[in-house]
Write a structure and sequence with these properties.
It contains 5 helices and 2 strands; from the N terminus they run αββαααα. With 129 residues, it is mainly α.
Amino acid sequence: MAIWKLDLLYLAIGALSGVYLRYKIGSDALFVYGVPVTILFINVLGSFILGLSMTTVQRFGLSQNYVILLGIGFCGSFTTMSSFAFEGAALLDAGKLLVGFVYIVLNVGLSLLGIVAGRALIILLAGLL
């Protein structure tokens, strides 16, 4: 099988898995104190998975196929920047400035924390092996 076809297969498997999981988790909108937390949860979890998987690939010298499958395919379709931006803008448009600001800060801050936590977990586990 040609290399590009194999890349496309890994990408498709990862993307279909990620988008399906996002669909299942995101089917019900959940709000906490007016802050939409469903997309927040998806973005933070996706960031954690991305940090975990990319650090694993780097630490253990795994095939770039894992980057295509997990990083680009799964995490790319699972996390949802456009939904985050839409919900943030909708909150600001509705005059809910404080809630909108909290939502934006939580999405960016906790997603970065997810990356750091995923990396740290793999570094910790690698040290134990």
